[in-house]
Amino acid sequence: MPRETIVIAGATGFVGHAVASQLAERFEVVGLTRGRTDTEGAWHRLVACDLFSLKDVEQALQGATYVAYLVHSMLPSARLVQGNFADLDLICADNVGRAAAKAGVRQIVYLGGLMPPPSDRAVSAHLESRQEVERALGAHGVAVTTLRASMVVGPQGSSFEILTKLVQHLPVMILPAWAQHRCQPIDLETVADLIDHCVGNAQTFGETYDIGGPEVLRYRDMIAIVGEVMRGKARPVLSLPFNFLRLSRRWVSVVTGAPKALVAPLIESLHHDMVARDLRLQEAANLPGITFRDAVSRALLAPTAAKPHAYRRAPRARATGVRSVQRVDLPPGATAEWAALEYMRWLPRGAWPPLRVDVEDDRTSRFFVVGMHKHPLLELRFAADRSGSDRQLFYVTGGLLARKTLRGRLELRATPSGDKLLTAVHDFEPRLPWFIYRWTQAMFHAWVMGRFGRHLARIAKQRATPHAPPPTTGEQQTPQQSAGRL
User: What angle do CA 84, 16, 233 make, to 5 degrees?
Assistant: First the structure.
C-alpha cells in the first residue's frame, strides 16, 4: 500500500531537515525549496518551488495529504525587494492555504512563535505576523495545527547562532534591558518529535499549542550558559537599564554577520516574555524536552554546527528580479476584483502627468510616455483564468522597460481578514541597468502604488460615513464599462 505524502515547505531550513528525518519513516516526504534541489536530506524528493507563485504551489501540493509549514520570509527573495517581511510572509502562507484546499490536503502543521501574555498590548510586528500566517493558512478550509515556540535550539538555527556568535566575538557582554525578559527555549529534536506526533493525529486538527523546554530563563542567563558550554568563551556581563532596540539591531548585525532584515524582527520581539502558558501537547505526547544546557551542548557538537548558516553560504547571484509588495486599505465590502477595476479606472489619471495609460476592454493596459504613443513602456495583460473575486492577476507581457519573461506579474489580493489589499509585483526583470532602475522606475512604481493606496483610503473613509452607498453601487462595473469611461 503506497504511503501518504507530506510536503514540507521550508524543507532545507534547520527545522525542516530535522522534521524530514523524523517523518521519512512514516510518509513519502516531498521537500520544497526555492534554491538548489541537490541538497542532501531525508526527503524522498526535493522540488524547486517559489512560494510567491500560487501556480507553483498548486503543482507542488498535488497528491499531498499533509503539509508542514516551516517558512519565515525575513531574508530577501529577489534582487530588489520593496515591502516588509509580514506582507511577504502573508502572500506565501495564503498561497499554501489556497493550494492545500484545492489539493484536498487534510492538515497543515505550522511552527509559529510564542505569543506574549494578553496583558502585553505592544506585540511586535514579528509576532503579529506569526499570528497572521496562522489565520491565512486556515482561511481556505484546511485544518491547521499550530505549534508556538520561542527559541528553537539547534545547529544553524538563526536565533541560536546569533546568540553563539555574540558570545564568541564580544569580550564583554553589554546587555540592554531586554536581556532581563524571560524565554522558554526548546531543543530541535523535541520540536521534530512534536510535529511528528501531530501529523495525521485528528485530535490535533484545528488546535493551537504552546511548546517549550523544561526551563524558563532570562536571556542574560541563556547567554551565560552558552558561554560556559563553549569552553574558554565565558564573558563578563554588564547590564544596562535601557533597551536601545535600534542600536541593538545594528550591533548584533555587525558582530554576528547576520543580515539586518533577519536581525531586526528578532530583536524587536525581545521586549516580550516568551513563556509557554499551556504544555498540554507535550504532556499528552510525553515529550517534555531537555534542559537548555543539554540542548546547547548537543547543538554545538552536531556535525552541521561548523557549517556556515544559509544566510552566509547562499550566493547573492541567486536573487534576481524585483518583488514589490504594498498593503493598503480595502473599502468595506469591496473585493480584489473591485479593486482591480478601480485600479484600471484610476490609472490614466493616477500615473499622469509623466505617463499616459491606455486600458482596453479585456483590461490589457499599456503605459506610454506622454507624447510618445508608438512603443509602450510596459504592457499588462489580465489573466482571467487565474483570477477570482479575492485575487486578480496581470502578467507583464511586454514594453521597452521589461525583459521578456514568463513569470513577471502584478497581482491584487485581498487579505484573509478582508479589510486590506496586497498589491504585489513578482519576478519583474527590468531592462534598465540596476542602478538606474532603482532610482527611477522602481521609485516611480512605489509612488504610483502609494497614490493608489491613498485613493482607496479616501473611498474607504467616504463609505465609513453615514448613508454612504454600498460598495457595488455605481462602481462595481464590468471591464467594458470601466474602459468606456477612460
Answer: 85
User: Which residue intervals of 24-140 are DSSP H helices?
Assistant: 54-60, 85-103, 125-138
Other beta carbons less than 10 A from residue 193's beta carbon? 19
pLDDT in tens, 164-191: 887 877 766 666 666 777 889 999 999 9
- Cell (9 digits) for 418: 478582508
Strands 365-369 and 378-382: antiparallel
Q: For residue 209, how many C-alpha atoms fall within 13 Å in the half-sphere facing its CB?
A: 25
Cell numbers representing residue 102 in the block: 484545492
User: CA 94 to CA 417: how far, in whole Å?
Assistant: 11
Residue 75 pLDDT class (50, 70, 90 cuts): low
Give pTM, 2 decimals.
0.87
DSSP per-residue string spanning 341-380:
HHHHHHHHHHSTTTEEEEE-TT--EEEEETTB-SS-SEEE
C-alpha to C-alpha distance for 209 and 277, rounded to whole angstroms: 9
Listed in order, the ranges of the chain carrying CATH 3.30.530.20 are 321-485
Class of domain 321-485: alpha beta
Using the CB atoms, write b or e for 463-480: b if 16+ within 10 Å: eeeeeeeebeeebbbebe
Please write the tens of the pLDDT for every residue from 33-60: 887 776 777 888 999 999 999 999 999 9
Radius of gyration over every alpha carbon of the chain, rounded to an integer in angstroms: 24
Respond yes or no on whether the N-terminal peptide bond of residue 433 is cis (omega within 30° of 0). no
List 378's β-bridge partners, or say none.
367
CATH 3.40.50.720 correct for 5-316: yes
Per DSSP, the three-state class of 95 is: helix
CATH 3.40.50.720 intervals, the chain: 5-316
How far out from the chain centre does Cα 321 lie? 18
